[in-house]
Amino acid sequence: MQVIPLSPDERAYTSASEAIDHDHPYVRELAGSLWSAHGDAYSYAKAAFEFVRDTVPHSADSGDLRVSWRASDVLATRNGICHAKSHALVALLRARGIPAGLCYQRLTEDDGTEPLVHGLTALRLPGSRGWARQDPRGNKPGVDAQFRLGAERLAFPVRPGLGETDYPDLYADPHPAVLTALRGSADRRELWQNLPKAL
Fold it and tell me: What are the Transglutaminase-like domain coordinates in residue numbering (predicted)?
């Protein structure tokens, strides 16, 4: 799917913010370690994706009730929902100068009820033609997201017949409604009630 950057200035997709705090010493140290082990942009981006996907459990899978949203906290506590994990991946990518941003899907249960907004990322590697979406949510039975620059392999392909949709916008910072929910929820149970149902 083609994503549409909301900012015309690509520097917005490499800059730090409160949620995407890639200037934090912990994020920079981790990025440096991953880069040293891989050494080129493609290999690093794949390693960063797999690190977040595989070593930061999705809190709904692990049962962790803590809510993290700042990239450095997500990486340090190894905890977060899809949105938080996306913040962490974007921070790791930006720490090595790879443009990256946030994008979203509207998903539902199998009967079309219980809509929710799911967070994922997109990146643009040097020399590539466009942005490639990646989903670091974390795999489990029935979910097999992979790092791909061509044909996407996301955690949840949308089902338009159930009202699901891929939002085309690429955000430099988290969507305000998502960030408000993350920052204002005492625990993950409260977070499920506060997250937007659509954008």
Answer: 30-136
Burial class of residue 171 in the structure, from the number of CB atoms within 10 Å of its CB (0-12 exposed, 13-18 middle, 19+ buried): buried
pTM of the predicted model, to two decimals? Answer: 0.97
pLDDT band at residue 128, thresholds of 50, 70 and 90? Answer: confident
Determine if residue 10 is left, alpha or beta; phi over 0 gives left, psi from -120 to 50 gives alpha, anything else beta: alpha
| CATH code of 37's domain | 3.10.620.30
Average pLDDT, whole number, for the chain?
A: 96
Tell me how long the chain is. 199
In a domain, 199, yes or no: no
Please say whether the beta carbons of 88 and 69 come within 8 A. no
Domain limits at 71?
4-194
Instruction: Give the number of domains in the chain.
Output: 1
CA distance 26 to 44: 17
Quick check: 81 pLDDT over 90?
A: yes
Which DSSP helix (H) or strand (E) runs through 116? strand 116-123
In Å, the largest CA–CA distance within the chain is 46
Spatial distance between the Cα atoms of 193 and 85, rounded to a whole number of angstroms: 19
Alpha-carbon distance of 193 to 199, in angstroms, equals: 15
